[in-house]
């Protein structure tokens, strides 16, 4: 337990000279955003994910088999725009490969614009999720999450993918002491799971008891804070800026 708390503390407040600098806590904020956004998409846009593509592939199979309440078209559109966002994130990662801080700052800024546009779309719709509104939001959110996932891969911070927890949970169990492992970074892995859960809980509360605009506005605000903090912290000679090898 002491090791778990110590690792969690290092993730939230990295020591001076840490090779990932402020990236871990900033990426935990992105993980929180993912939970909020997937709550919006699943609960508010007809049972589709915009960040969890494993879920969409499974939903597509269910829908094609005739399962009720699922849309094959929505799953296909979400998969397509997520891949488009990931492609853009990959290209951005190549252009800004020399400085991880600038890469995160620019990508978070683009995501803020996409989430802001989604919040405006929901606000203009006045709470009515028509087919046009549904697919507009799926496109905007899917692009943002695909971009985030690709950039997280480029940043290369272990156990902080920001959108996928399957491997994180597997590592938490498979690398544990009872399994014969050394349990590297258990605190970071546990924090990642808890933060995703918290984002989903907050997002669900806002979607079910408030409005889509509230959840989307919160996600946009979190991304704006991430972008601003990263810009502020990203000195040209930051020791954590170069990509890991």
UniProtKB/TrEMBL annotation:
Cross-referenced PANTHER family: DUF1275 DOMAIN-CONTAINING PROTEIN (PTHR37488:SF2)
UniProt protein name: DUF1275 domain-containing protein
Alphabetic keyword roster: Membrane, Transmembrane, Transmembrane helix
Entry keyword Lyase: no
Spans traversing the lipid bilayer: 26-45, 57-83, 103-126, 132-151, 190-208, 214-233
């Amino acid at each position: 337990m002491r090791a778990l708390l110590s690792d969690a503390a290092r993730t939230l407040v990295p020591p001076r000279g840490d090779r990932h600098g402020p990236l871990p806590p900033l990426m935990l904020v992105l993980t929180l955003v993912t939970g909020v956004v997937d709550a919006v998409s699943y609960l508010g846009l007809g049972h589709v994910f915009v960040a969890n593509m494993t879920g969409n592939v499974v939903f597509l199979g269910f829908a094609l088999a005739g399962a009720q309440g699922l849309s094959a078209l929505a799953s296909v559109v979400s998969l397509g725009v997520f891949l488009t966002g990931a492609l853009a994130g990959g290209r951005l990662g190549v252009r800004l490969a020399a400085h991880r801080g600038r890469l995160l700052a620019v990508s978070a800024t683009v995501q803020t614009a996409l989430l802001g546009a989604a919040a405006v779309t929901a606000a203009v719709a006045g709470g009515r999720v028509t087919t046009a509104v549904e697919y507009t939001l799926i496109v905007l959110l899917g692009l943002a999450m695909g971009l985030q996932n690709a950039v997280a891969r480029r940043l290369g911070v272990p156990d902080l993918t920001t959108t996928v927890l399957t491997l994180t949970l597997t590592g938490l169990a498979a690398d544990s002491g009872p399994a014969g492992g050394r349990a590297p970074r258990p605190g970071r892995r546990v924090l990642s799971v808890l933060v995703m859960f918290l984002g989903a809980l907050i997002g669900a509360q806002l979607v079910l008891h408030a409005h889509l605009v509230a959840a989307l506005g919160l996600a946009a605000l979190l991304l704006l804070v991430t972008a601003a903090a990263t810009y502020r912290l990203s000195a040209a000679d930051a020791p954590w800026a170069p990509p890991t090898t």
